[in-house]
Structure prediction request, 226 residues.
Amino acid sequence: MDERAIAILGGTGDQGLGLALRFAKAGRPVVIGSRKPERAVEAAEKVRAAVPGSDVVGLENADAAARAPIVILSVPFEHCAGTLKDIRARLASGQVLVSMAVPLATAVGDAATRMLGVWQGSCAELLAALAPEGVEVVSAFQNVSAHRLQALAEPVDCDVVVSGAQAARRRVMDLCGLVPGLRGVDGGPLANARIVEAITALLIGLNARYKVAEGLGIRLTGLPGA
Ligand SMILES: NC(=O)c1ccc[n+]([C@@H]2O[C@H](COP(=O)([O-])OP(=O)(O)OC[C@H]3O[C@@H](n4cnc5c(N)ncnc54)[C@H](OP(=O)(O)O)[C@@H]3O)[C@@H](O)[C@H]2O)c1
Prediction:
């Protein structure tokens, strides 16, 4: 396993592809995962075309998950648990699994501006309950817009509140620093993911009311050292 690699499962979609472009541009090896390897290969080709010379490959989700110390789950909330079950046997102690999904009510046919109740408290905590022993789940990137990630010429201009066990969340905060305009903010324990996930539903409503097609981000003011 390449210690610098980042795996993005569902990296064929808008958000995962945006992260893949940004991490590839920062010079990190990227492994894109998909249920269908050919879709992953196609997405990897798109990234290499946008970032010439980048080290990006496409694999089936479970193969991708086994290839990187940090694995970002970039599938809709309603498919997160199933995807984790599919790849679980290929995860190993010491890996970090990043939860980025938001339990939007669209999963049950309701509005994207509303949240579903999740028994564990958040998508991130649900994944933590299902992850193998020794795999740390960290919550991050829920408030970042896919459109802004994909606009490679511009900085993203968003804070990323990162929650989870301390050492693991530090590793994910470091990833944020690879992307111009993103700032990792120490979001404390994983239970805070429920607050961060809900902010996305608020942002979706704001995007509609203010007609911001590119998607709003968030900024925290007054952070020491910022
Ligand atoms: N879009 C945004 O601006 C944004 C912002 C913040 C957070 N997020 C979060 O980021 C995640 C990805 O967002 P997205 O907009 O990229 O989502 P998406 O395009 O709807 O889906 C991402 C990928 O999920 C996989 N997928 C679809 N159905 C699946 C199923 N039944 N089982 C397993 N995998 C399935 C697909 O990959 P394959 O078909 O290749 O397997 C698809 O390309 C979501 O959880 C979302 O809440 C998105």
